[in-house]
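Summary for the lay section of the report: proteins are chains of building blocks that fold into shapes. Here we show the chain for SDR family oxidoreductase and then a coded description of the shape we predicted for it.
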Amino acid sequence: MTDLTDQVAIVTGASRGIGRATALLLALQGAKVVAVARSAEELEELNTKTQGLAIPADVADEADADHVVAETLSRFGRLDILVCNAGVGSFNLLENMESAEWDRIFDVNVKGTFLMCKAVVPHFKAQGHGHVVAIASDVARRTFEHGTVYGASKSAQDALLGSLRKEVRPHGVKVSTIYPGLVDTYFNESKPGGVEAEKTHLKPSDVAQAVRYVLEAPAHVVVDELMLHPITQEW
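The coded shape description reads as follows.
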């Protein structure tokens, strides 16, 4: 298994939910975690536990994405892992969605993934290794009512990652995509009916363990895609 000790990992959307759980778990495994989110206060609280680096940033802003990578390299002198977790959603009938919501969701879910990958990939290729792990969603592979815009963004993100995977593999760089089902986080508050307190929902820690699983796979093992089922918690 790959040892995560002293590996440097950027985790976006780290202030809450899946991102926070992932940052905490990677730090526990010995990684140096660079936590990225827009909330400086929540990041600083997290950083007291991870003892890494907290960088308030908007992943949909190219200057911010470049700044995150530059600060990481300046602080630690290396970069091994990018966890693209930042995401937003809004759930409504198509005719009730505003174009501004389309822009916001695609900016974070698709453009944010694009910009963060664009910032790290040249470094990964130059050093001959690196691992991008993206938290997508099972809705990239299925559709549901009220999910037109969010589902479209996740399908676009999925296509981006699939193409990137083929581009970087000859350079020793891995790209893994995780597709969680329903996860018990604040994210559900924006869904019709509010928070669903289903015992069958995944926990943020379940997704964090899936991230750890793909990162710790032996160097010769490539986990391209990992579907995480909420009922059985199997992956």
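Put simply, here is one thing we learned. The helical segments are 17-28, 40-50, 62-76, 99-127, 148-168, 204-215.
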